[in-house]
Structures are given as structure tokens and as C-alpha cells.
Input
Amino acid sequence: MPDEDVSVLLLPCGGTTLVVQASWVEAIDELTIVDGELRDAVALFGLGGEAALGSRSRRAIRLLGGVWLAVGHEVLLRALPASAFGPVPAWLGGLVDRAPIAALVRVDDGFAFEVDVARVASEDVHAWA
Amino acid sequence: MRGETSTASRATVHLLRFRVSGAELAVVAREIEEIVELSVTTSVPGVSPHVPGLLAVRGEPLPLLDLAAFLGLPAEARAEDRDPRVLVARVLPFRVGVLADSITGITGVTEDQLAPPTILRPELLRQFARAELDMGDRVVALLDLGRLLEAARA
Output
């Protein structure tokens, strides 16, 4: 069975890389000009604060449903094989409970974390304690 | 029954010995799948300092455990000539890479060579030690890997 490619946005952010499937994204814009309900990836994923993002201007992506997610400066479009997506190792299971992470994604020589878009959009998602 | 006990105490268990921040530790060798070199790691968001990241081992993700950070061993005791290795530990349901400064060897021991953990320091090390082994010039802590991995999970 062929391993179909999935179009994704890679979002380097605060020392890690987040992944959002492109089909879930309605728009990308400068963080300073977006208008509407906004969630910050730094708070949602415990990414170590603004200092970890550097001084370059941040961007935001609008997810299906209309919620904006503030991310870092870079937004990269890539195609990844579906087989690159896998579960988060059991030993890190608590991480999935605390942060809206849907899957672990193999990217180049390392890994990235797929954003659970439904949890980000839901009202009961909390900032990192 | 006495004969069975005697036989059990003479059964040899192989321990893998390694060094972390100046302390010599051991695990039951059969709990270790393999030993790999430490290469580029991926940081994991929002976890404790004792989880320094994920390592790709033949493309599969392996979460790493820094025992020195978890057990409170002094970072300054890390030898400059260390040869870092990752012990790939499999204690179901977990598969975790345990960071070691160096591998010191494998020792076959019988149960009667193992003593209850009493003199180990720091306290957290004693808490996760299954036994201690007197090697003559030093004491080696045999870790209860299952309990330790459960307590340290992220």
C-alpha cells in the first residue's frame, strides 16, 4: 500500500517544532494584526516563554473554526509521508494529557509534535500550569 | 525447601554497571535491549529537566532519562573524560533511554552477594535501589528500574 504524503506546516517555536496539517489551516498572518479568538502556543505547550522565540516578529495561523494560534516567526510548508506520524511514547504519556498534542511526527533526523487542532479550538483548553 | 533456597541464592544474575555523576550504578542486564551512542536529540516541550529529549534510534523515538538530574547526583562530579552512552531500557510498558557517563562492565552475582541498600547517598538513590553490591573498594547501587521509570515518567 503506498505511503501517501500529507501537506503540513512546520512551526519551529521555542526550541521545538510543532506540526499542523495544512488542511486544518485557513490563514497565516502577522500576529500583531490578527483579530479574533487567539491562543498562544508558548502557553499551551509550555515552550519556555517569549525569550525562547527570539526577537523576530511572530506569526499566527487561523485554524478551521476560526481560532488563531500564535506561533513563532517561521512557518514552513512540507509534505510528509503518512507513516511519519506515530504515537507519543508511553513514558511521555502525561505530556499528551497536559498539552494539546495529537501525534509525534518524524521529521528529518528528529521529531516534531502534531498540534491537536480540536483541543486547541475547544474552550476548555488551558494554558500550561 | 532449604535446598531450593540455597540453589536460588546461587543462581547468577548479570548486572550491567555504569557511571553517572561519579556514582557507580547497576541494572539487571536483561532489562537493557542495547547500548547506543548519544547523538542529536529533540527537545520535548514542558517536561522536567530529567527528560532531556527524544533520541531517534533507527528512526524510532526513544525518550531519554537523565538519572543525575532525577536522583539529584552532583553535576560537577561528571568526569571530563566521560564517554556518554544510552542504555535502551525496556521495562514494560516503557522503553526509555537511560543516560550514562560511561559503561564500567558486566558482573555476574549471586543473590547472597547483594545486600539491602543502606549506605547509599543521596537519599533518592537509596529509595530507587533494589540492593547494593560491595565491590571491595566501592559500593554499587543496583537500581529497581521498573519503579524508577514509573516514578520518573513525564
